[in-house]
Amino acid sequence: METLGQFLKREREFRGITIDRLASMTRINSGVLKKIEGDDLRPPLQPVYIKSFLKSYAGSIGLDPRDVLMKYEGQAATDRPPAPVPVESEPSKGGFPWFGLVAAVAVTASIALAVFLVKR
Asked: Apex CA 32: angle with CA 30 and CA 35, to 5°?
């Protein structure tokens, strides 16, 4: 099955438009255009920019931008990894007994203070 990038490249070449000419027409960096044609649509390219670039690309070579965006959305939906399934964590079973430690330190300090005061 032909990818969006392959489709765009084929259509551009069919019309005799070079990447440099398309870059001039769209004001999109030729490196970005090559990434689009290579289906390299990952960060740092953000989806909002990709859609804008695709609309500009399509319109510049005579394609309907809506059709190109539908192809992009369809391809993006199949390229997305499945959403992670949330895993329920078990409730904490105690952990470190902070309250017990604080209470023990307080009792020990009270006893030490009492002994100190009695010996005075």
From this structure: 110
Residue type at position 104: A
pLDDT in tens, the chain (120 residues): 889 999 999 999 999 999 999 999 999 999 999 999 998 887 777 888 889 999 999 999 999 999 999 998 887 666 555 556 666 666 556 556 666 767 788 889 888 888 878 876
Tell me the residue type at 24: S
Q: Where are the alpha helices (DSSP H) in the chain?
A: 4-14, 19-26, 30-37, 47-61, 65-79, 98-119
9, 68 Cβ separation under 8 angstroms: no
